[in-house]
Amino acid sequence: MREITFKELLDAGVHFGHLRSKWNPAMAPYIFKELNGIHIIDLDKTREKLKEAAAAIKQIAKSGKKILFVATKKQAKDIVAQKAQEVGMPYITERWSGGMLTNFQTIRRAIKKIDLIDKMQKDGTFDKLSKKERLRLLREREKLQKRLGSIKDMTRLPAAVYIVDINKEKIAVAEALKLHIPIFAMVDTNTDPRPIDFPIPANDDASESIALITSYLTEAIKEGLAERELEKEKKRAEKEKNKELAEAETQKATKPTRKPIRRK
User: Fold this and answer.
1) What pLDDT score does 76 carry?
2) Ordered DSSP codes for 54-94
């Protein structure tokens, strides 16, 4: 994993925190200084915490488990959706529905409803319904799709969640904590980083900052996925080699031996 540079963080405005009047004292270890009434984040701490987070998230991806990306604020949602799609991870960029994690079975039922409507469209059942009923089902599907985002392909709870703004996504944080799901998150100077497993001190309002931090973590996920695929290839090659050796041994064992001819 490459080292992120101090200049990259500086250029993206990762160091800009909130006004001193809005700060959370729990962020004190990550604040470098106050400048014109605004707290400045210690970028050395950011680099350190980002490196730890990247190493951990890489291992989760390498294990084949899913990481749920969460960002519903305007300046973050498109960035997060794009990056999550790049690595094939589920994401929520619309409103977080209560129970998305803690009541996952109900969410699964809603997902099955979407699948059922899709199946009806494909097998011709839709054509047998009235126009009014078809419209009702399509509206219901659209509503569910918007609510669930890309998690409709998520068959089980995620192994971790990545959150851009923990103040805005309080319900997501609370549900992940309740289920002991590790949380990776950007923590600005107005947040409490203590409940977060992998806090990354950073400006969570500027799109450039969000893009840089999210991109770095997705790079780590890509590396984890690549290493997983490489290990699978090695195992497949080893399995094929063992199969060939076993077949060779079997042929050798079953090959008839010629008896020596005795001369009279």
Assistant:
1) 97
2) HHHHHHHHHTT--EEEE--SHHHHHHHHHHHHHTT--EE-S
Lay out the sheet containing 31-35: strands in order across. Answer: 16-19, 38-41, 31-35
SS3 of residue 18 by DSSP: strand
The CATH class given to the 102-154 domain equals mainly alpha
> Which residue has tokens 């199946």?
119
- Please provide the DSSP assignment of 126-167 as one string: GGGS-HHHHHHHHHHHHHHHHHHGGGGG--S--SEEEES-TT
User: Which two three-digit tokens encode residue 105?
Assistant: 């079975």
Cα separation, 110 vs 107, whole angstroms = 5
**SS3 track for 182-203:** CEEEEECCCCCCCCCCEEEECC
User: What average pLDDT values come out for the chain (264 residues) when binned by 10 residues?
Assistant: 93 96 96 95 98 98 96 96 95 88 86 88 88 90 79 86 97 97 98 98 98 98 96 83 77 66 58
What are the structural domain ranges in the chain?
Answer: 6-96+157-238, 102-154
pLDDT of the residue at 255: 67
pLDDT, residue 14, reads 98
Instruction: Report domain 6-96+157-238's class.
Output: alpha beta
